[in-house]
Design goal:
- With about 140 residues, the protein is mostly helical.
- The chain has one domain.
- About 55% of the residues lie in helices and about 5% in strands.
- The chain has four helices and two strands, in the order ββαααα.
- The protein has a two-stranded antiparallel sheet with strand order 1-2.
- Strand 1 and strand 2 form a beta hairpin.
- Helix 3 crosses helix 4.
- The N terminus and C terminus are likely disordered.
């Protein structure tokens, strides 16, 4: 298996050029930052109609906002909290499952990494968000 940090040689019809891939953890950090902004932008856009719904009482609107924030906070925690190399793949899958990656974002990684991330993201859509918290130990976190 080739390291994601290794240099690949591409031989074209006219020239030979070196392509050096970005380190996987650096690429993941950049993606995380952009995805976090997209996530927050999306949540704020979801809140606006809830706060302006005049057919509901102020209390009903407050409760709707509170419930949405709770749900989105769980998603945010699974995808973004405690970044570490050991959790990089799982968090990328969570970010991908939330639809926060653009089509070319995963191109920074090896084909093997992309396949794993896409597979985990598909699995997570079949289960609840807890399926993405399995990390390296394979154990689920304790209930709060």
């Amino acid at each position: 298996m080739r390291s994601a940090c290794s240099a690949d040689v591409w031989t074209g019809p006219i020239e030979r050029r070196w392509v050096v891939r970005e380190r996987p953890d650096d690429a993941a950090r950049r993606l995380r930052e952009a995805a976090l902004q997209r996530f927050c932008e999306r949540v704020l856009a979801e809140l606006l109609p809830l706060t302006q719904d005049r057919s509901r009482s102020h209390h009903e609107r407050y409760l709707a906002v509170f419930r949405l924030i709770q749900r989105r906070d769980e998603q945010l925690a699974h995808a973004f909290n405690d970044p570490a190399r050991s959790r990089m793949i799982v968090q990328l899958a969570a970010i991908h499952a939330l639809g926060l990656l653009s089509p070319g974002d995963l191109e920074r990684f090896t084909e093997e990494t992309r396949n794993i991330v896409e597979s985990l993201a598909k699995q997570s859509s079949l289960y609840d968000s807890q399926s993405l918290t399995l990390g390296c130990s394979g154990r689920r976190p304790r209930p709060r």
